[in-house]
Amino acid sequence: MKDVLLQKIENRSIVVGVIGMGYVGLPLAIAFARSGIKVVGFDIDPDKIQKINSGISYFKHIPSKLLKEATNENKLTASTDFADIRYVDAVIMCVPTPLNQFREPDLSYVINTIQSILPYIRSGQVVSLESTTYPGTTEEELLTRIESRGFKVGEDFFLIYSPEREDPGNPNFSTSTIPKVVGGTTKSCLDVGVALYGNIIEKVIPLSSTKAAELTKLLENIYRSVNIGLVNEMKMIADKMEIDIWEVIDAAATKPFGFTPFYPGPGLGGHCIPIDPFYLTWKAKEYGISTKFIELSGEINTKMPEWVVQKVIDGLNDNERSLKNSNVLVIGLAYKKNIDDVRESPSVELMEQLRKKGANIFYSDPYVPHFPKMRDYKFDLSSLDITKENLTLMDCVIISTNHDDVDYDLILKHSKLIVDTRGVYRKNYMNVIKA
How far is it, in rounded angstroms, from Cα 296 to Cα 288? Predict the structure, then answer.
């Protein structure tokens, strides 16, 4: 089986199925299609499937041109019918792994997906999980279920874990240029996984196990979470000492060794950094280990919106205004600049806290024209145009996400009060509070 599968990979006759056409699955499917490999994208959302088959991208950072090229050449098709899994040679799962209300791993998407496709998995396939999760998930949740069909791993089917490393909106890296970590359940599984991803990725890094690959992804995100928590704490200390933290970071970054700059903000956003560290926190308890660094950084980062709200209150008080009934405009709904992804965005939590304190909330984001449906938040709002007229109606403007496509000079000129959480205004201005 292994030799047959490797031959298909080598001559590009392999058919790849990607489950989950979100921020990870869609660019991955396009990358396979552009390399000349036939791809079937699977998703339970019929609207996404219709758009893919029509060559229409639903992500700002993915041009429709790329999608249309793939579909016009019949290299990429999309389907809601998981029974079609039987026709593909590789199954790549790119489904969400959120936290539940108790900050515990929610593997329902992974488990429901494998259960849905289990009747259609056949001998000779390779199955890859890309969703971020705790060490042991691939073997505990996927291996046991697939082997229940009577297949033997490494002989009848091949199981790997290869964590996604997408960075939406980053022009310096793409799916194909970001090195890819791969861990296999067996040596044969690893060989197949390296060959599969080697078709589209410039550099593939093989690891000794799926557990090592799972922990690698967590370490990457925990590293960022801890360092962002540190710099957010440093920001609060610097503020009390009346020191400009942005000046300090810029100065420290001139050291050519031993320092990597991280930047403060209103909190953490995106699917990875606010969520993934707690997968390890939860798993570590099974081994009697307390993850103090992880939990402390999470606590600091989670409280940052409160810090910003207090800055808004203080600034309004100085202007002889109360927060209640004040008009507050939040610039940037996405969790980071130049993308339309609002998952776990601190901007949304900031808006919620301000609304609860009686403020009239508005937002402006060139990438998010309407407030999207979200599980925990609901605002009946559309993006406000940044004009002189609209700015003069605001009592406070908060720079929460520093998109490039924003007229910051206009905001500076016509705003009564600006609370800048992203270091947009490096000079000192009378109407700007650095938060």
Answer: 18
Q: How far apart are CA 96 and CA 105, in angstroms?
A: 11
* Beta-carbon-side half-sphere exposure of residue 400 (alpha carbons within 13 Å): 35
- Whether pTM > 0.90 for this model: the answer is yes
Rounded-to-5 percentages of helix, strand, coil across the chain: 40, 15, 45
Residues in the chain: 435
Query: How far apart are alpha carbons 218 and 25 in whole angstroms?
Result: 19
Phi, psi of 18 (to 5 degrees): -110, 120
Task: Encode pLDDT of 143-198 as tens digits.
Answer: 999 999 999 999 999 999 999 999 888 889 999 999 999 999 999 999 999 999 99
Q: What is the pLDDT of residues 208-256, one digit of tens each?
A: 999 999 999 999 999 999 999 999 999 999 999 999 999 999 999 999 9
Best CA proximity match to 280, nearest among 225, 336, 199, 345:
225
Ordered structural domains, the chain, with CATH: 2-216 (3.40.50.720), 303-434 (3.40.50.720)
Kindly give the residue spans of alpha helices, DSSP state H, lying in 259-345: 277-285, 292-302, 304-318
Annotated catalytic residues are 272
Question: What is the token pair recorded at 358?
Answer: 């009686």
